[in-house]
Amino acid sequence: MADWQVVMPEMHLGYIVWARFKVNQEKLTDNAQAYTYTASPAWSGTGRACFRAVSLAAYAASA
Predict the structure, then answer these.
(1) 3, 7, 22, 23: least CB-packed within 10 angstroms?
(2) From CA 43, how far away is CA 31, in angstroms rounded?
(3) Which mean pLDDT values do the consecutive 10-residue runs of the chain (63 residues) have?
(4) pTM value surpassing 0.85
């Protein structure tokens, strides 16, 4: 929101009120921080091989 040029809270009926918007933003931020992704050592490096296998299968199916 810091980079917004114009803020007109409660300008149009039917939108949520500004206080509710702020609460929603805080919840979204908290939820995003709660689910940070860390790669599992068991699966690290297997993405390229999986992509290649799927790509080859798709190519073979189209030929």
Answers:
(1) 3
(2) 25
(3) 81 85 91 70 62 78 72
(4) no
